[in-house]
Design a protein that fits this description.
Elements lengths: L1 H11 L4 H17 L1 H7 L2 H28 L11 E5 L1 H4 L9 E7 L7 H14 L4 E7 L3 H5 L3 H8 L2 E5 L1 H16 L2 H18 L15 H15 L14 H25 L11 H7 L10 H32 L5 H6 L1 E3 L2 E4 L2 E4 L8 H10 L6 E2 L1 H8 L9 H10 L6 H9 L3 H4 L20 H13 L4 H8 L3 H13 L10 H16 L3 H12 L3 H8 L5 H11 L2 H16 L8 H17 L8 H13 L2 H4 L3 H8 L4 H6 L2 H13 L3 E7 L3 E7 L5 H7 L5 E8 L5 E7 L6 H10 L19 E4 L6 E9 L4 H12 L3 E5 L2 E2 L2 E9 L8 H8 L6
Parallel strand pairs: 2-3, 7-8
Antiparallel strand pairs: 1-2, 1-4, 5-6, 6-7, 9-10, 10-12, 11-12, 11-15, 13-14, 14-17, 15-17, 16-17
Helix pairs in contact: 1-2, 4-6, 4-12, 10-11, 11-14, 12-14, 13-14, 14-17, 16-18, 19-21, 21-23, 21-28, 22-28, 23-25, 24-25, 26-29, 27-29, 28-29, 30-34, 35-37
């Protein structure tokens, strides 16, 4: 080896340890820089093995040089020294990835006459000085068993030990200790491994940015299967499980999935130039290129990579779950429970224990028709499906085409309150796409919209889950009011709403067509199918209107209700929208979203009986009449009532319910200077009434680090203004927020605002929005301090904002402002737009 020869030359020249470590470090750096070229030649496990062997070479060189330091030309044979170097973990398995830590165990005997511990210390320092990411453990051979009991990770790493160099005699003693470790307290070890395995799945769920190592279906799942198999059966590789536990076909699928994930993880490390186990969206183009994915007519390289990733993760997840269960079954079998197990049997070799379905691994497969009939015979209650039952379902023989009898049985499942559990069981078993042929294209289909965090198939199933677990009592009541056929239709619509994705064209239109064909096969009535088509075609409509438009404008509401056609469609779309948004991520459906959707629903429902929506003034008069009947309002003095009814902002009346109008107005009556209410539970919410000017631009600039969600400003009476400012997150320091509010009443305070990038075509100024308000809409790149800058421009022109809607999607701000028409606002709109875009007048 060139490096060894060079070191020998430096030793002869009397070189220092620093010069030697510098040389080794340079060789390691040169080697690592060549890995991109090596990866082009060979990938997968072969690449990892070659990389591991190269690292072996550097470790051996460092070990040899350290011995030369201590023994010079009188260096004894390795077998004569009571020290051995052992590779552990992924390094021991010969699966060392590019930037992974090099786990090394040094085993020795403390024999008089050998100065072993200083040798070990010198070797480690040399490795670290050479830049190696070395994780190490040092143990006397007789301490190994005790050391393995310190931590589950330590024992696992030891079980993956591989001899590197040193005394082979001592390695033989080490192997005997490792055998003892493997057999020691085996049941407790495996129980803890399985607990950790399940916890990992909770911590790293399968999302659009999956963790390739620790996440669901990641390489750690295959490792867990190997550890269990090694502990129970002494296997040295997963192939040893064939054919006793794994069939050749199952092992091939497992190995292909594992091989792809090996390739993917190496490409991730090389693309990120660091240890990187999460497939972040920004790395996908580079990784796809390294793995040789190319753009195709209907699928981009990035899409192909992501889909292949999800397929591999899912294969590894299900296979490892099944065979961990199968391997461990004899270990955890309690013969004393046989009598109760027999009592739990509901069909031959099928069992239900505490609401969970189990199957014997020796259960022969049944037809799809038999399985559907069995599911329909079960009580409509929440059920769990053990992985043994999923294995049983996976064996189901399938036909090219489903019979009408299959579709009729499957339709009956949609009349069940607890449908999702069956859909998910079919999904895990790989049967859902055979029951629903159009879903084949959506399986493992990624979504690169920066909004959804799950692939299409998982998102769709989560939406059905949320339909069965509605948290909003009002929406639940709407669902409860539906008839059985209506609920069944809605369940199918929720499952199908995104089924058109990944195809060329508008996914809503394509999905509507696919739904129509499939609903006809299930035997739904034409009237119901037409409703389903409408819902899927407009499944994003309600969310878009609520978040992007002025829902208090008569034209917006009229357009919305005319599209839907009748109140039943509105009701179903409201429920569908709730499920769709909740299925995006655990946090997407916020209190702001819930409030907007409910207000849109109420306004639209009110509009349906009318031929046309009444104008703003008429709607205000209607609200004033309702206010006059409010007991709290009636209790106020006549003078106070007149003040409230004289509030100039029509939007204030349209926006708030009668009790809210009374509450805000009563609070404002008591204010002499200003007062603020700050809530900081699920998110930061600030309500403020003031009599003297409030420096809003300054305040927003100081809280620009918080994600602004919604803002309203209303003129009240006696020169008082009401502000409602809401954020999408909580504030760490409420005291600081309170202090900023106090400071913002100093109108002399200024802050340097960075000019945001706003293009003219990203602004739309509608002076004909209504008789009272002009509307300014902004669709620009999301930038910190954007709102603060816009408000500063409004302040400069003396504009009064009635409402501000803030939304960010795909790093784009979609803001909507309602501005009171006053002075020569519309005459100066071009100047205002120019100033917002950073252009100087003149």
């Amino acid at each position: 080896m060139e490096l060894e020869h060079h070191i020998e030359m430096l030793i002869d020249q009397g070189a220092s340890d620093f010069e030697i470590s510098k040389l080794i470090k340079q060789h390691i750096k040169t080697y690592l820089s060549s890995l991109d070229s090596l990866f082009e030649q060979t990938q997968g496990k072969d690449f990892l093995v070659k990389h591991t062997k190269s690292i072996d070479g550097f470790v051996k060189v460092i070990f040899k040089y350290t011995l030369r330091q201590y023994f010079g030309n009188y260096m004894p044979l390795y077998n004569a020294l009571p020290i051995t170097l052992v590779a552990m973990g992924s390094y021991g398995r010969e699966e060392l990835c590019v930037y992974s830590d090099i786990d090394l165990m040094i085993v020795y005997k403390d024999i008089k006459g050998y100065n072993i511990e200083p040798i070990i210390t010198a070797m480690l320092y040399l490795a670290w000085d050479a830049g190696m990411k070395l994780g190490h453990r040092t143990h006397k051979v007789e301490e190994l068993l005790d050391a393995s009991g310190e931590d589950l990770t330590i024992k696992t790493a030891m079980l993956e030990s591989r001899f590197l160099c040193g005394s082979k005699f001592l390695w033989m003693e080490t192997e005997r200790e490792l055998f003892r470790i493997r057999r020691h307290d085996m049941r407790a070890y495996i129980e803890e491994k399985i607990t950790t395995y399940r916890a990992r799945g909770e911590q790293y769920p399968l999302t659009m940015e999956p963790n390739i190592k620790q996440g669901v279906g990641g390489l750690r799942d295959a490792n867990t299967l190997y550890w269990v198999a090694q502990c129970l059966h002494g296997v040295t590789k997963l192939k040893d499980l064939v054919p006793r536990f794994l069939s050749e076909e199952e092992f091939r699928d497992l190995r292909m999935a594992q091989e792809f994930l090996f390739r993917l993880r190496s490409a991730l490390h090389l693309s990120a130039n660091k240890k990187q186990d999460t497939l972040n969206l920004e790395l996908i183009p580079s990784v796809a290129q390294k793995l040789g994915f190319v753009d195709k007519r209907l699928q981009s390289a990035q899409m192909s990579l992501a889909k292949k990733t999800f397929e591999s993760l899912w294969t590894l997840k299900i296979t490892s779950q099944i065979y961990i269960k199968r391997l461990c079954a004899p270990l955890f079998c309690d013969l004393s429970n046989l009598s109760s197990l027999r009592a739990a049997r509901f069909r031959k070799k099928l069992y239900m224990v505490e609401g969970t379905l189990y199957a014997s691994f020796h259960k022969k497969p049944d037809t799809l028709k038999t399985i559907l009939e069995m599911f329909l015979s079960l009580e409509d209650v929440p059920l769990g499906f053990d992985i043994s039952f999923i294995h049983y379902l996976r064996q189901t023989p399938l036909k090219v085409h489903n019979s009408p009898a299959i579709y009729a049985l499957f339709k009956r499942l949609f009349h069940r309150q607890h449908l999702n559990q069956f859909l998910y069981a079919f999904y895990k078993a790989g049967l859902l796409q055979d029951l629903i042929k159009p879903m084949r294209h959506a399986i493992n289909l990624p979504q690169f919209d920066g909004y959804h965090i799950y692939p299409v198939d998982i998102h769709s199933l989560k939406c059905v889950w949320h339909l069965e677990h509605i948290q909003d009592p009002f929406i639940q009541a709407l669902l409860d009011d539906l008839c059985g056929d209506g609920k069944a239709l809605l369940r199918l619509v929720v499952l199908f709403h995104d089924i058109g994705k990944g195809r060329k064209g508008d996914h809503s239109e394509i999905g509507a067509r696919l739904f129509k064909l499939y609903a006809q096969k299930l035997g739904f009535k034409e009237e119901s199918i037409a409703m389903g088509v409408l819902l899927i075609r407009y499944h994003t409509y309600m969310s878009n209107v609520a978040n992007r438009e002025d829902i208090y404008n008569e034209k917006v509401i009229l357009s919305f209700v005319s599209t839907l056609g009748d109140p039943k469609a509105l009701c179903l779309l409201y429920i569908l929208t709730y499920c769709d948004i909740n299925g995006v991520s655990p946090t997407t459906y916020s209190t702001f979203t819930a409030k907007l959707l409910r207000e849109l629903y109420d306004l639209a429902l009110e509009a349906f009986p009318k031929d046309a929506l009444v104008d703003e003034a008429s709607r205000r008069r209607k609200k004033e009449k309702a206010l006059a009947k409010n007991p709290s309002f009636m209790a106020l003095s006549n003078a106070t009532q007149r003040k409230i009814l004289g509030i100039p902002s029509t939007f204030f009346f349209l926006k708030h319910k009668t009790h809210e109008i009374v509450s805000i107005s009563s609070w404002a009556l008591e204010i002499k200077d200003y007062d603020a209410h700050i809530l900081n539970h699920q998110h930061l919410s600030i309500s403020l009434v003031r009599t003297r000017p409030f420096n809003l631009g300054y305040f927003l600039s100081k809280v620009a680090y918080l994600d602004l969600a919604h803002m309203e400003i209303f003129k009240l009476f006696d020169g008082k203004k009401y502000f409602k400012i809401e954020f999408n997150e909580v504030a760490e320091d409420i005291g600081h927020i309170s202090q900023l509010i106090d400071e913002s009443f100093d109108m002399s305070k200024r802050t340097t605002l960075k000019q945001p990038i706003i293009l003219e075509d990203e602004l739309a100024f509608d002076c004909e929005h209504s008789s009272t308000y002009a509307q300014l809409s902004l669709k620009a790149k999301d930038q910190q301090g954007l709102m603060a800058y816009i408000i500063s421009v409004f302040d400069e022109w003396g504009l009064d904002i009635s409402s501000a809607k803030i939304q960010t999607i795909k790093h784009r701000a979609r803001n909507l402002f309602l501005i009171e028409k006053q002075g020569k606002l519309c005459d100066n709109k071009e100047k205002i737009i120019a100033l917002l875009c950073g252009k100087k007048e003149g």
